[in-house]
From TrEMBL:
NCBIfam families: PRK00080.1, ruvB. It is found in: Cytoplasm. HAMAP family: DNA_HJ_migration_RuvB (MF_00016). Has 3 domains, the large (RuvB-L) and small ATPase (RuvB-S) domains and the C-terminal head (RuvB-H) domain. The head domain binds DNA, while the ATPase domains jointly bind ATP, ADP or are empty depending on the state of the subunit in the translocation cycle. During a single DNA translocation step the structure of each domain remains the same, but their relative positions change. This is Holliday junction branch migration complex subunit RuvB. Residues 63-194 form the AAA+ ATPase domain. InterPro entries: AAA+_ATPase, AAA_lid_4, DNA_helicase_Holl-junc_RuvB, P-loop_NTPase, RuvB-like_N, RuvB_wg_C, WH-like_DNA-bd_sf, WH_DNA-bd_sf. Its EC number is 3.6.4.-. It holds the Pfam family WHD_RuvB. The lineage of its organism: Bacteria, Bacillati, Actinomycetota, Actinomycetes, Kitasatosporales.
Length: 357
């Protein structure tokens, strides 16, 4: 899946259930970010491992090992990077792969780091090649070669760096060259959150935003949040608006359901686009298999939008499968839309019959 292509990122950000941050998210997220590991909800394994790494470094009076955070958008990578700095009582410098065009940009940042500082490099997979190679040496030997001059007269001046902790974040760990991946002492793979964890995220955010919510309301929003805290927080804000305007402000299950019906986010977190794709697949193509291009035309969307914006979640939810012969709906898809599969499909895997007939 590609989260980086600008048009897809924009298409995804426009959606209420898109995982990429929009302008409003960025404005409120700072206020909702947990400040230390104890406040960080879920991701038990990552938390436990990171806690050990940081505690041990603190006990040794050393700078923590470099940390790589990998996971889908909105799961808490930026949040964790700030927590790492806070737990180490170290300052943090924030930059990103796309912001580092030339090795010189990176050299300037590295040479101005203080001892023990955390350097957060977001979207690290999008760094340029020469910068990447400079980073290898900086991570391993705390040294960079700064090239002065051009052409045959150019000389490399070695520069010592103070020990620092690099925290890299990526939505696409698979794109990192192995030499870079290997230089991280610890890699945290962030998973999607379970419903109970999302409920805790929602209750916590509601408290910070001064929103009244009961447990049934939190459960309802959690179930529609696609395993992603950022989406949970966003849905919470929209439901809060509804509760304020249409009711007395208290978010109950009933209010959450009514509010999210207005925004066309269904009980499983599918929005209009997702449902459009599923509906076309079921109603027009009998559940498939159907080619991606045909399916895209049927829903009036670009191929890329269907493939990169709608499908990943449908596949993750077990509603749609990508097969060599095309897209296929699963029995769960028929059930979710309240439709009855054609007889040859009701066994659960009758696509072959349809096609062979
Ligand atoms: N474990 C958590 N507990 C509570 N809130 C969380 C947690 N993880 C994320 N959040 C909330 O979700 C929002 C998004 O998190 P964050 O910005 O860290 O995601 P990200 O992984 O950096 O996303 P991106 O890939 O888009 O940069 C933040 O506002 C944060 O408050
Ligand atoms: Mg981030």
């Amino acid at each position: 899946m590609n989260w980086d292509d600008t048009t897809d990122a924009e298409a995804a950000a426009e959606r209420l259930v898109g995982a990429v941050a929009d302008g409003e998210d960025q404005a409120v997220e700072a206020a909702l970010r947990p400040k230390d590991l104890g406040e960080f909800i879920g991701q038990e394994k990552v938390r436990e491992q990171l806690d050990l790494v940081l505690r041990a470094a603190r006990a040794r009076g050393a700078t923590a090992d470099h940390v790589l955070l990998s996971g889908a958008p909105g799961l808490g990578k930026t949040t964790l990077s700030m927590i790492i700095a806070a737990e180490m009582e170290a300052p943090i410098r924030i930059t990103s792969g796309p912001a580092i065009q030339h090795a010189g940009d990176l050299a300037a940042i590295l040479s101005s780091l203080q001892e023990g500082e955390v350097l957060f490099l977001d979207e690290i997979h999008r760094m340029s090649r020469p910068a990447e190679e400079m980073l290898y040496m900086a991570m391993e030997d705390f040294r960079v070669d700064v090239v002065v001059g051009k052409g045959p007269g150019a000389t490399a001046i070695p520069l010592e760096l103070p020990p620092f902790t690099l925290v890299g974040a990526t939505t696409r760990a698979g794109l990192l060259p192995p030499p870079l991946r290997d230089r991280f002492g610890f890699t945290a793979h962030m998973e999607f959150y379970g419903p109970a964890e999302l409920e805790r995220v929602i209750h916590r955010s509601a408290g910070l935003l001064d929103v009244e919510i009961d447990p049934t309301g939190a459960a309802e929003i959690a179930g529609r949040s696609r395993g992603t805290p950022r989406i949970a927080n966003r849905l919470l804000r929209r439901v809060r608006d509804y509760a304020q305007v249409k009711a007395d402000g208290l978010i109950t299950q009933e209010i959450a359901e009514a509010a999210l019906a207005v925004y066309e986010v269904d009980a499983r977190g599918l929005d209009r686009l997702d449902r459009g794709v599923l509906e076309a697949l079921l109603k027009l193509f009998g559940g498939g298999p159907v080619g991606l291009s045909t399916l895209a035309v049927a829903v009036g969307e670009e191929r890329e939008t269907v493939e990169e914006v709608a499908e990943p979640f449908l596949v993750r939810e077990g509603l749609l499968a990508r097969t060599p012969r095309g897209r296929v709906a699963t029995p769960a898809a028929w059930a979710h839309l309240g439709l009855t599969p054609p007889r040859s499909q009701s066994s659960g895997n009758g696509q072959q019959d349809l096609f062979g007939a």
